[in-house]
Amino acid sequence: MSSYRSLLRTPEFTPLFLGSAAQTAAQTVGGLALGTLVYRATGSPLLSAVSMFGPSLAQVLGATFLLSGADRLPPRTALSVIALAFAAGTAAQAAPGLPVGAVFGVVLVLGLVASLGGGVRWGLLNEILTKDGYLPGRSLFNMMSGLMQIAGFATGGALLELLSPRVCLLLSAALYLLAALALRLGLTARPPRTAGRASPAATWRTNALLWSSRPRRLTYLGLWLPNGLVVGCESLYVSYAPHAAGTLFACGAFGMFAGDVTVGRLLPPAVRRRLATPLLLLLATPYLVFCAHPPLPVAAVCVTVASVGFGASLVQQERLMDLTPGELAGQALGLHSSGMLTMQGVSAALAGAVAQLTSPAAGMTVMAAGSVGVTLALATAARRSAEPGREPAAAEAR
Fold this sequence. Notes:
Layout: H1 4-8, H2 13-42, H3 45-57, H4 59-65, H5 69-72, H6 75-93, H7 100-128, H8 134-162, H9 165-186, H10 200-211, H11 214-234, H12 237-240, H13 245-266, H14 269-272, H15 276-284, H16 296-307, H17 312-322, H18 329-357, H19 360-385
Helix pairs in contact: 2-3, 2-7, 2-8, 2-9, 3-7, 3-18, 4-7, 4-18, 6-7, 6-9, 7-18, 8-13, 8-17, 11-17, 11-18, 11-19, 13-16, 15-17, 15-19, 18-19
């Protein structure tokens, strides 16, 4: 397995890594600022949750109509333009007097733009690295994401004590511009991985091909559903602890970082492959404690422990790449990213609706219980598929 040091010496890896780091920082600072802005304006847990995770809801449209572009567009141009679009959209959300409806309109547009980002980025990463380098490479990206979220949410929470949410949104827009510059100057002009024109028809054909395999279906469902339901819990941090949401987000990012280090570097492959279901159960179970309305210190511990379970996605993505032809890697990873983010957006809306009718703590408990149930159901389906006489399926519900 490639070392992290050797990955950083790989041509194009570092600029892609740094550009993604700047985008993650922009997303965390901007998302917390936008959620706080909407919550202060409306007092609604539902609208606050959707404002932070709303772009994810538009991912389903992108996955349906735009995803073929992940393999049919020049990667450098696509990634740079996406970062610029987010810079412009985030700056627009900071406009004084912008109605809440217009804010959500911008959120929808940015979600459509973002639907291409995961497929282009991870397809390029798969192209840059050797086959045995993808998992440690993705692990390093996930670790970076965890660290940048820790820093971004902690910094964002501190900035919101000193500055207005609109000023924080402008700072986020500046970070997106920095990301666009790093990507444009650091990446080389590679041709698209697949010939042909990006179109809805091409997107549908390839998605149908990817979905036609039962092992891939189980892998996709395992990537989308348990993860998304737990992100519904996260979407209620602002309404659960309005003055300490940044702390909870930072604790979650730290737990995710620990999980990625453990799964990506410390566990041997034979052990790692058996841990998808246990990690997904770990991801949800600590949130069941929120039924007792725990105080902030206990809530922070639960969030940290639970987020270690996000390491399951590394195991699942490794399985997905084993099941997918190389020329379809970009769209396969884009479908994973878009489906996961769509489910996160749906879960944020659902969690916000439950919290609106009951309480944020009750919303977290319901979403966590749903994640546990889905994980157990997928694990059972995978075991049945692996029985003699059935089509071989992914080991466990990946």
